[in-house]
Amino acid sequence: MIGKRMEGALNEQIREELSSAYLYLSMAAYFHGEGLDGMAGWMRLQAKEELEHALKIFDHLVERGGRVRLEALPEPRFEWGSPLEAWKAAYEHERHITGRIDELVALAQEEKDNAALVMLQWFVAEQVEEEDQTRKVVEMLERIGESGRGLLWLDKELGKRKKEEK
Ligand code: OFO
After folding, report:
1. Is residue 69 part of a domain?
2. Which CATH number do you get for residue 48?
3. Ligand 1 centroid from CA 131, angstroms
């Protein structure tokens, strides 16, 4: 049986993961509006991945006799000044999520909740990947600068992301 503090903190993390999905879906809509369908496709897949993150925690709570309580989601940002600005926001968001995961690990250690600790290890590794992916796109966009051709090339590359890819 999971403890009350851990249960509450994991419910908050379900909201964070669903908020991530909501944010990336909003970014997908922005990219579609800019004619960058490859980037939009990447963000749509990312939104689905975030829903899977939420379900991982959902299942953990259920399996341990905890109660899932879904909280209201904040309205995501709607507009960005440029593709670079949007990808920078995605990278910053992932850094925020990494901080949240680190706090959950610290709480699980404090509570001596080994089951939660094991489950959270997956998220620790996942965050390394998520930060890496978004940071690399930011770096590429910075190199591309004002080049329209460069932007279209990157859009095409990101559009190759497949569903099973992380
Ligand atoms: Fe983007 O990793 Fe979950 O939130």
Report:
1. yes
2. 1.20.1260.10
3. 9
